[in-house]
Design brief:
about 325 residues, UDP-galactose 4-epimerase, domain 1, 2 domains, 10 helices, about 15% strand, binds nicotinamide-adenine-dinucleotide
Length: about 325
């Protein structure tokens, strides 16, 4: 089958990661349909070549109508709410959107013969890791309702794979950052809590200062350590998983990271090297629900696919994030 006859469904394709993966799918010749209610997404991120259906993933009656007219080989399920702090304040909202609605949506997919799912999970399911680098079989310990909603959907998929012969790839993303090198997509969010996003907003004058959320962690410089993966490498991982699902009929869970951690202070220092003026920072208290250190052991994915990332360099991640911030800054001012 030529790729131009393969229809792929993408939920959350108006968001940061979903739009990046949609671009790559289109680059590689797939037909892409996007379901998004634009609750946090942006229509301008949707590739013009994609078919866009503005709807909620729980809108079963409209989704069934679409499924009657088009057959999909697989679904990428990105749609979800992603702010840890908000999930602590409004846990029911997260359980409803990320778990209950996703379950309704995936059941509609399975009932309509879409039986291959790639699901966006998170490294937050590991909580405070007991060792340096987490592997997929490590103990799950979600520290907030956001992570809880993700692990519940993971378990639902695993259960359905046994009951309904569906296949899944669960991808546990570490910290996704950077922007498409061609500047087609990147992160747009007024309320983002992502360090690199906020640092770039400060660097472009949209925010006055960056608050460092805690400098009393048990790490070399006292700030929290994360494993940052470039969004285009993450998109590449998704394409490999799609081929794996279509060709191999297997199900797997993979960590998505580079296996190297950077502290908040290291990220700030590296960003400052790209700037003529250093960004203003201030130390604040720790945030509820934050782990001290989360770094992936990415060997399972890298070995299964003999994969090497293209953008495994904090400077490239920061440079593309900064260029994107300048681009959207210029557009809106
Ligand atoms: N960004 C990260 O660092 C990161 C890390 C781990 C996991 N993830 C997961 O990856 C996925 C994508 O994240 P992102 O950073 O692109 O977020 P995003 O907010 O940019 O994109 C999410 C998209 O889903 C849509 N959406 C949400 N609920 C919906 C619903 N009920 N019906 C239809 N559309 C809906 C939003 O409008 C938005 O376009 C999320 O599931 C998130 O939990 C992201």
């Amino acid at each position: 089958m030529s790729k131009s006859s393969i229809n792929i469904l993408v939920t959350g394709g108006a968001g940061y990661i979903g739009s990046s993966v949609s671009n790559l799918l289109i680059d590689q010749g797939y037909n892409v349909t996007i379901f998004d209610n634009l609750i946090t997404g942006h229509e301008e991120l949707i590739p013009t070549e994609a078919k866009f259906e503005k709807l909620d993933i729980s809108d079963t009656s409209n989704i069934e109508k679409i499924f009657k007219n088009k057959k999909f080989s697989a679904v990428f399920h990105f749609a979800g709410l992603i702010r840890v702090g908000e999930s602590i304040e409004f846990p029911a909202k997260y359980m409803d959107n990320n778990f209950e609605k996703s379950k309704i949506f995936l059941n509609t997919c399975f009932d309509n013969d879409i039986k291959k799912v790639i699901f966006s999970s998170t490294a937050a399911v590991y909580g405070n890791a007991k060792k340096n680098k987490v592997v997929e079989t490590d103990k799950i310990n979600p520290l907030n309702p956001y992570a809880e909603s993700k692990i519940k959907l993971e378990n639902f998929l695993i259960d359905q794979s046994i009951k309904r012969q569906i296949n899944y790839v669960i991808l546990r993303y570490f910290n996704v950052a950077g922007a498409d090198v061609e500047m087609r997509t990147g992160l747009i969010s007024k309320f983002s809590s992502h360090l690199i996003k906020i640092a770039c907003e400060v660097a472009t004058g949209k925010k006055e200062k960056l608050i460092i959320n805690g400098d009393d962690y048990d790490t070399p410089d006292g700030t929290a350590i994360r494993d940052y993966i470039h969004v285009s490498d993450l998109a590449d991982i998704h394409l490999l998983c799609l081929k794996y699902l279509i060709n191999d009929n297997k199900s797997e869970i993979f960590n998505c990271g580079y296996g190297k951690g950077y502290s908040v202070k290291e990220v700030i220092t590296t960003l400052n090297e790209l700037l003529s003026n250093k960004i203003k920072t201030e130390v604040g208290p720790r945030r509820d629900g934050d782990s001290q250190i989360i770094v992936s052991n990415p060997n399972k994915f890298n070995n299964t696919f003999s994969w090497k990332p293209k953008y495994n360099d904090l400077k490239i991640i920061l440079k593309t994030a900064l260029d994107w911030e300048k681009k959207i800054f210029n557009k809106k001012n």
